[in-house]
Amino acid sequence: MEKRLYAWGSGGTGQLGLGTKDDHTLPQRWTHSDQVVVEVESVTSGGCHSAGISSDGRLFLWGSDDRGQLGRTALEPGRTFVDVPIQHVACIPRNSVQKTKLVACGWWNTLAVISSNADDDDSQTDQVFSWGSNDHCQLGRKRNAGGCKAAQIRHLSLRLQVSSIACGWKHCLLATAEGDAFAWGSGRHGQLGLGTCTLVTDIPLRVDALKSVSVSDVFCGWEHSVFRTSSGEVFTCGNNRHGQLGVCETLTSISSETPCEKQKHICGSPLRVLDPHNSVEGLRTIHVSCGWHFVMCLTERGELLTWGKGSHGQLGLGRFESASEPQVVVFPHTVRQIACGSEHAMVVTEEGDLYTCGWGEHGNLGHGDRNNHATLKMVEFFQHTDQAVTRAVAGGAVSLAVTSAHKHK
């Protein structure tokens, strides 16, 4: 079945991949001649650049390269952005055995997982590469070792199998197939989950506070982190100034050793987010997504929950206010998938419809205007096509949607 990719929102550095530096307030279909769009299996977006992985494991990047985040050895003189997808990241292995498995875009850096024997899970071995800005050791190596040249992150197991990666403003997270979580980069706000004394680390360190649970997914906000376990529980750490940790600040960490520094709105060890219907039970989630200062998740009950900063309406609660603990979003449709940009949210329904809310200054809500919306509103554009939205992606002020034909009504 043919897949299509649509992009809209902020395009000032070419991060929409449409061949221009224009913003778009309505979804725009990718129509590149090399047909890479049809082959895209996954796509992600960071602050000012984006990346995609094709069905055969090729990695493509586009957008700003002002800090080397596209992994190019050089661009044309005076050119600091690429507005269409490019391949051939410097020093990344490219052969029939090694394929790109995962990619994550931070503000000025990129993280990618390259797998060998990807078709055989038992013998698969993953390598983690990073490139771009390393001002805060977010590349997982010494601060003076940044730049556009990609390099493998050392200090990880030789038999590594990665299940999830994420990039924030100044830090990165990784989860292994064994359920361990690793963090590196800046920890000044406790976002590494390694305690408030770890201000920065240039090597990946295991988050030992989570050793009693199995971490399956990791997510980075601007200065906070979210960990989802294999049982669906959610743990958070880092900056809680806007309530983005979703917990009462008087609680202690999972290890019960280090209390939150309430006066600084900082928590350096992961906290369990509680179910709003049961104050002694942790959340049970199916999907989680993280914005700069807020979180959205889909629970096993089918409820949509949000918390954190809400000044742009990104929580979808009908008001422009923050929430320090999980709040139920009133939404009458069955949710399939969710995605959060910097200050906006996207929700895909089982019927293949797309809804958005939050910050819309660059047209990133897809409604044909630049207004903010505090409630989830359907993106009407897709109602006039035969396309069903199967997946949404958001990063910064960029919105992306993967679609397929034969929408079900």
From TrEMBL:
Highest taxon of the lineage: Eukaryota
RCC repeats: 3-56, 57-116, 126-178, 179-231, 232-301, 302-351, 352-405
Domain annotation RCC1-like: ranges: 5-401
Keywords carried by this UniProt record: Repeat
Gene3D superfamilies: Regulator of chromosome condensation 1/beta-lactamase-inhibitor protein II (2.130.10.30)
InterPro entries per UniProt: RCC1-like_dom, RCC1/BLIP-II, Reg_chr_condens, Ub_ligase/GEF_domain
Entry keyword annotation includes GTP-binding: no
Pfam family for this entry, one: WD40_RLD
Listed name of the protein: RCC1-like domain-containing protein
